[in-house]
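Handout, section B. The chain below has 200 residues.
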Amino acid sequence: MTEVATARRSRITPEREAELYEAVLDLLREVGYDALTMDAVAARTRSSKATLYRQWGGKAELVAKAVRHNKPGASASAVDTGSLQGDLHALTMRSDDCEMEQNSALMRGLAMAMHGNPDLLRAFREHLVEPEMAEFKKMLQRAIDRGEIRADNPAIEYIVHMMIGGFAARTMIDEQPPTQAFLLSYIDAVVLPALGAPTT
């Protein structure tokens, strides 16, 4: 990124950026991705549309970054409890059941929108999926270094798939929102055994 682009993008304070992201998520919950417009975001946040485009380039990047910003707490790789089970449990405990239910509904809507919006899919891969996978790889590397899991375990490549799968399947199969209790039991019954990691 050029110095000019960096200077141009840095005009919005972190507090203002957080405020904008919250407004975007509120609008998404109200109208969905397809009906969300930059005009609506500008009106809701009392911003100029030009500022929004200059800062984020377009709706897809703005939405992906808003979802990423909404993820609670520090990055996954920053969580270090001394065990893989402790790390995965600590990540799960960052969101209460109410937040999980809201996020589950939001992500279902965005998953549907991605099918018809390659820009949204690309933005999610760049700003959410790839960073998440990199964070989990760091966490798993620490578990390998501690001797908790083997480096050649093929399940390592599917950690993000397993975590997202448990979160998404709870609503589809059980017709209930994901909860801390469900995800903690899922981690202990499915994720850790697949990785060959201790569950006690």
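Note. The radius of gyration is 18 Å. Compare this with the example in section A.
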